[in-house]
Write a structure and sequence with these properties.
Elements (H helix, E strand, L loop, with lengths): L34 H11 L15 H4 L4 E6 L11 E9 L9 E8 L5 E3 L4 E5 L7 E6 L8 E9 L4 E5 L5 E2 L4 E2 L9 E5 L6 H13 L8 E2 L10
Protein name: Lipocalin/cytosolic fatty-acid binding domain-containing protein
Organism: Triparma strigata
């Protein structure tokens, strides 16, 4: 019935789900039979109250990846839980095209309060997801093909102030105080980056305001402790 070949007999099944961590604006329901089905479609695609975010105009990837970024505030995700909000940083390096088509090597580091490290090493990669918008990247483990990757969008980037705002794609969950992404893997996360490890309140507040202007619920952002980070090299 699904148009797939069968080895012996067709497979009869029923599929159900409670939530979806990744959305795509081009996925549109063509037929619904009940109001509950319509509401399910709306919950997957997000609501009209979440306005489309904009990425950094004239984004220069080479400039962006030329130096380490320290995370000052971040939303909880499956791979960055709240207990790892210490000494977090990210750095990037251009790659020659790999077998799977990755463009950038990603290195993430975080610690727990007691100094326990969480280092991604060379296991994570990124690729340019949109030829017309270089600020839209996608990230996944390097051993996976690029179609499995999740969005990494640079919404704001200012090298003069050494700051950036990064989102895990288009937020679609309306909280009443703005919108947010999920907290799983793909389609999750919100980050405020700075070039300097020491927190500059003026710079951070500037990025917070830009996030608010883009429609984000700022309550999802947790402080990252960048002090006492002697183990960070």
């Amino acid at each position: 019935a699904d148009g797939c070949p069968t080895a012996v007999t067709d497979l009869t099944y029923k599929e159900s789900f409670n939530s979806c961590s990744q959305h795509d604006d081009v996925c549109v329901a063509t037929q619904t039979e009940t109001e509950s089905e319509i509401e399910t479609v709306k919950s997957l695609r997000g609501t009209d109250d979440c306005k489309p975010v904009s990425t950094q105009d004239g984004f220069d990837l080479n400039s962006y990846i030329d130096g380490r970024w320290y995370i000052q505030e971040q939303a909880v995700t499956q791979y960055l839980p709240a207990e790892q909000n210490f000494c977090v940083y990210a750095e990037y390096e251009l790659l020659e095209k790999s077998f799977w088509g990755w463009d950038v090597q990603v290195h993430n580091y975080a610690q727990e309060a007691d100094g326990t490290p969480h280092d991604s090493g060379d296991t994570i990669c990124a690729h340019k997801a949109d030829d017309k918008d270089p600020a839209k990247l996608e990230v996944a483990p390097c051993f996976l093909p690029t179609f499995t990757a999740g969005p990494y969008w640079v919404l704001e980037y200012d090298e003069a102030t050494g700051s950036a705002l990064v989102s895990g794609g288009q937020p679609s969950i309306d909280t009443g105080d703005g919108c947010k992404n999920g907290d799983g893997v793909n389609g999750s996360g919100l980050w405020i980056f700075t070039r300097q490890q020491e927190r500059d309140e003026d710079v951070v507040n500037m990025m917070r305001q830009k996030a608010k202007d883009q429609g984000f619920d700022l309550s999802v952002l947790n402080l990252v402790d960048q002090t006492n980070c002697a183990k960070v090299e």
